[in-house]
Design goal:
6 helices, 12 strands, globular, binds glutamine
């Protein structure tokens, strides 16, 4: 199978090696005999609705978010249609914030979001930086990563978080939750990049993308993931030791 990936703003939103998540998707798809066809979707580009199985966007500083936000707003309808048609979507940090209704930065400037996720974000004084460990009760698994954000993200009532914070700040440093998920759309503050040390989650998103490509729900046979499990354990231990402290 050729999986069609739309990578939004790769040259603007790519900090903490977020682009590395694409490499993990490619390696784990290839391990099951599938290939990725990755195309960049950037400023002025159209969204090939119905021709992408997986959308991805990384994180970025306020400056980079401001450079893409207005263009992203022009793609809102097409992205909603693509997701409505069953495409999977993984968004990290600054990209995650712009999938909500808006991101208001520390200067009070409000960047429009596309309203794909039921949330909004307001930057606070102190950045929330450090290792993070989440419990994803919906999958019976944990996620380990790294966060660095000024934004405090507030989920609407009834919105599903990606995980419960075991260590770290998470969405707002208070709610005890991190990220947001709805259907095949996943948003998170976790950098690192996220996927090398969280193979199960990469497979979750890949299975959603394959379901879009094939029209059938897909169960991926697990990989050995020895190195991935060790990397996860190290990150989890680091988060427990020092996550969530200013
Ligand atoms: N600029 C946003 C914030 O500070 C997102 C940062 C990021 O992507 N790491 O909250």
């Amino acid at each position: 199978m050729i999986l069609r990936v739309g990578h939004l703003y790769p040259e603007y939103l790519n900090i903490y090696a977020d682009r590395g998540n694409i490499a993990v998707f490619r390696a784990r798809a290839r391990a099951r005999g599938h290939e990725l066809d990755v195309r960049a979707i950037s400023i002025g580009d159209g969204v090939p609705v119905g021709e992408v199985d997986l959308l991805y966007v990384g994180g970025g500083q306020d400056r980079e978010q401001a450079l893409v936000a207005l263009d992203l707003a022009t793609k809102a309808d097409a992205l909603r249609e693509a997701v409505g048609g069953g495409a999977a979507f993984l968004a990290v940090c600054g990209g995650y914030q712009l999938l909500g209704r808006f991101y208001r930065d520390r200067a009070g400037v409000e960047l429009p979001g596309i309203g794909l996720l039921p949330l909004h974000t307001i930057a606070g004084e102190r950045r929330m930086i450090g290792d993070v460990l989440l419990s994803c009760d919906w999958a019976g698994r944990t996620l380990a990563g790294f966060e660095n954000h000024a934004g405090r993200t507030y989920l609407d009532d009834g919105a599903e978080p990606l995980g419960r914070v075991l260590a770290g700040f998470g969405n707002d440093g208070k709610s005890g939750y991190e990220g947001c998920r709805t259907g095949r759309v996943y948003g998170t503050y976790l950098h690192g990049p996220l996927l090398p040390r969280n193979g199960w989650f990469a497979d979750r998103v890949l299975a959603d993308a394959l379901a879009h490509a094939t029209g059938e729900e897909v169960e991926l046979e697990p990989l050995a993931d020895k190195l991935e499990a060790e990397a996860h354990a190290v990150a989890a231990e680091r988060a427990r030791r020092r996550g969530g402290r200013f």
